[in-house]
């Protein structure tokens, strides 16, 4: 929990610094435009530069925070991290070990399952199901249709392989663990690391 609070504070500071930077850049752009035009709106800003800069900071801060915690960018805080996989669904990993998927993330569902290696193909989550607990499902593989919100349990690797071949889905050899998918999700150009939250 402390790690989550620390990461949240770092995120807020990062967004604040970016909003300060972008407000300054916006002010410079407005000043450059003021040199070439005679618009009354622009000249009004040039007479109150500090006011304009201070006005832009909270607006940009809120925009950056909303962007950081949007579905496409949100990867969790602290020990629980997640990967967006489409249709407002996520695959979660807590404490660097247990990987799980909630068909309905807003409510407890008996269909919640722990997964091992997985892949996403054709808007379907194809995954090995981990059966380490007394209430684990009886099947070894699952195909969850993200768009239709339906799951197809498959008892054995043979059942999954047949199903995958018929439906043109990846075979179990093509599955990867959570760390592979998370690294792929987090890999971005260096400029995005510094210039976006």
SSE string: HHHEEEEEEEEHHH
Query: Tally of extended strands?
Result: 8
What ranges have pLDDT less than 50 throughout 5 or more consecutive residues? none
Radius of gyration: 23 Å
Quickly give the structural class. alpha+beta
Average pLDDT works out at 88
Biggest β-sheet, characterized?
Answer: 8 strands, antiparallel
What is the number of helices? 6
In terms of DSSP E residues, the strand content is 15-25%
- Our count of domains comes out at 2
Transmembrane segments: 6-34, 50-69
Keywords: Membrane, Transmembrane, Transmembrane helix
Please tell me about this protein's structure.
With 197 residues, the chain is α+β, with helices and mostly antiparallel strands. The chain folds into two domains: 2-68, no CATH class; 80-186, no CATH class. Helix content is 45%, strand content 22%. It is built from six helices and eight strands; from the N terminus they run αααββββββββααα. The protein has helices at 2-36, 40-47, 49-68, 157-167, 178-186, 190-195; strands spanning 76-77, 80-86, 89-94, 98-101, 113-121, 124-129, 141-145, 150-154. The chain has an eight-stranded antiparallel sheet with strand order 1-2-3-4-5-6-7-8. α1 (2-36) crosses α2 and α1 (2-36) crosses α3. The longest helix is centred in the first third of the chain and has 35 residues, at 2-36. The chain is elongated.
Comma- or semicolon-separated keywords:
197 residues; alpha+beta; eight-stranded antiparallel beta sheet; 6 helices
